[in-house]
């Protein structure tokens, strides 16, 4: 195994500073591992190794001059194919989109580039980010490093797979209904969406009131390092606000006493028995950290209709021409959902808007009593590729099977998936950590502390 596989951002950065190895040596190793892993996992929609080599060489020159930009300088990463990267096509996982290179970077890409990131290329996504599994008509099936016959989840499938496989220490993804947290759970890594608009989104998403950009990483501290780089005000995103962001990195390295609600089903879900057992065991481990935990069986009614109305309003408008003009090019499961979006009435949408405001207020008052809400990230572990929903969840659609993630895109509050165990088949299981508005620090604090006691931490390396 490569000496660089599964190294954290901090370990790589310190290795650079000590001159143990250089950015170009690291990149050569990453490309060699890519050539071995990509045929097995199908993680990339586009690569630009020539550009990456130039970026690595520039980082090496800065290091030699003592001008290191920070902890991300010289470290390879990728960007999901829903996010614009200058000079690379933005295909959204679809055959119905042009291969025209983007003219400019998205704000998050600008920020990691300014921090010295070495961008390998674009990671795979389900078509338009619409499915919670890892396949698209454009790129085919992306596979889970823990078992290539299983899905890595989606829609940030390629990003999660390459982090879990140890190819890169972090990758940028998006989350409009769980698309960071779902693959983080199924791939055994840490994924976080910060407070809505903490990270600028531009060009505007098809679901602008749901969409987040965030990191997938091997641990909470690495995610905090990336969040610190990409968070902040940007004039192109009207939802962002001026002002300094919290000390994410400090939070991931320090623990403070917390009060948490534990809700195994939020009041409406149903879990695979192994997921139920593993997450319950994780709660017992968390209690040993001094977290005061209260069981809350019912937190809410299922808000899937609210989420669906918001989703339909966005994609039905943005993708109308593709839905009506090029339907044969679309994933049939995605097309079926998008056709329903075209049929939504204005009254239905606005009824949902008003219900969403009430839901946000309900959750605001809930968090007056708790620092965190803990749930399983998903009701299941990874399942077979080629399926749109897990076995036993055929009554759900391509999003609603991911029972516990989409509520917190409606509220916009921070939420993350933390790996907490493995099934009898060796598949990872995640625990979702949800905080009150703008309180990413509580999530990072608990996640960082839990990682120090996680009994199966050493197993977080798939055998590839």
Q: CATH homologous superfamily?
A: Amidase signature (AS) domain
* CATH class (first level) name: Alpha Beta
Query: How many domains make up the 3D coordinates?
Result: 1
Low-confidence stretches: none
Report strand order across the widest sheet: 6-8-7-12-13-11-9-10
CATH topology: Amidase signature (AS) enzymes
Basic shape: globular
Estimate percent helicity.
Answer: 25-40%
Order of helices and strands: HHEHEHEEEHEHEEHHEHEHHHHEHEEH
Radius of gyration: 20 Å
What is the first-to-last residue Cα distance?
Answer: 9 Å
What structural class do you assign from the helix and strand content? alpha+beta
Task: Report the biggest beta sheet as strand number plus sense, adding barrel if it closes.
Answer: 8 strands, mixed
Q: How many DSSP E strands? A: 13
Description:
The chain has helices at residues 9-17, 23-41, 49-64, 107-114, 157-164, 181-187, 220-230, 248-252, 273-287, 304-318, 320-325, 332-342, 346-366, 407-411, 440-453; strands at residues 44-47, 76-80, 118-123, 135-136, 140-141, 170-175, 190-193, 212-217, 259-262, 292-295, 372-376, 415-422, 428-435. The protein is an alpha+beta fold and 464 residues long. It has a single domain, classed as Amidase signature (AS) domain (Amidase signature (AS) enzymes, Alpha-Beta Complex), CATH 3.90.1300. The strands form 3 sheets. An 8-stranded mixed beta sheet has the order 6-8-7-12-13-11-9-10. A 3-stranded mixed beta sheet has the order 1-3-2. The protein is globular, with a radius of gyration of 20 Å.
């Amino acid at each position: 195994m490569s000496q660089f596989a599964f190294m954290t951002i901090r370990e790589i950065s310190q290795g650079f500073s000590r001159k143990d190895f250089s950015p170009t040596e690291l990149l050569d190793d990453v490309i060699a591992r890519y050539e071995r892993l990509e045929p097995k996992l199908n993680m990339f929609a586009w690569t630009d190794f020539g550009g990456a080599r130039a970026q690595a060489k520039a980082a090496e020159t800065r290091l030699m001059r003592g001008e290191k930009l920070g902890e991300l300088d010289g470290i390879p990463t990728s960007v999901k194919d829903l996010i614009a990267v200058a000079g690379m096509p933005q295909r959204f996982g679809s055959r119905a989109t042009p291969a025209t290179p983007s003219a400019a970077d998205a704000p998050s890409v600008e920020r990691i580039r300014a921090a010295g990131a070495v961008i390998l290329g674009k990671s795979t996504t389900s078509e338009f980010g619409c499915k919670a599994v890892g396949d698209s008509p454009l790129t085919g099936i992306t596979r889970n490093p823990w078992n290539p016959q299983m899905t890595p989840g989606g829609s940030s499938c390629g990003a999660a797979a390459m982090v879990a496989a140890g190819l890169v220490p972090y990758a940028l993804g998006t989350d409009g209904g769980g698309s960071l947290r779902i693959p983080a759970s199924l791939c055994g890594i840490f994924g976080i969406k910060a407070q809505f608009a903490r990270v600028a989104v531009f060009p505007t998403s098809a679901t602008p009131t749901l969409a987040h950009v965030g990191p997938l990483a091997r641990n909470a501290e690495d995610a905090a390092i990336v969040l610190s780089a990409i968070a902040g005000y940007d004039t192109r995103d009207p939802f962002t606000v001026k002002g300094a962001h919290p000390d994410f990195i400090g939070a991931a390295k320090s623990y403070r006493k917390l009060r948490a609600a534990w809700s195994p089903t939020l009041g409406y879900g149903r879990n695979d028995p192994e997921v139920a057992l593993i997450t319950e065991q994780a709660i017992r481990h968390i209690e040993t950290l001094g977290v005061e935990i209260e069981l809350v069986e019912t937190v809410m009614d299922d808000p899937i209709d609210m989420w669906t109305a918001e989703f339909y309003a966005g994609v039905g408008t943005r993708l109308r021409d593709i839905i009506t003009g090029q339907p044969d090019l679309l994933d049939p499961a995605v097309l079926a959902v998008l056709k329903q979006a075209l049929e939504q009435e204005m009254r239905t949408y606005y009824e949902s808007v008003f219900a969403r405001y009430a839901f946000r207020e309900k959750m605001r008052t809930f968090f007056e009593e708790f620092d965190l809400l803990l749930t399983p990230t998903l009701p299941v572990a990874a399942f077979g590729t080629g399926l749109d929903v897990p076995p036993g969840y055929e009554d759900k659609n391509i999003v609603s099977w991911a029972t516990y993630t989409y509520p917190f895109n409606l509220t916009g509050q921070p939420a993350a998936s933390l790996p907490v165990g493995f099934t009898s088949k060796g598949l990872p299981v995640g625990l979702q950590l949800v905080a009150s508005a703008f309180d990413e620090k509580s999530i990072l604090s608990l996640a960082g502390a839990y990682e120090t006691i996680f009994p199966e931490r050493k197993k977080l390396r798939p055998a590839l």
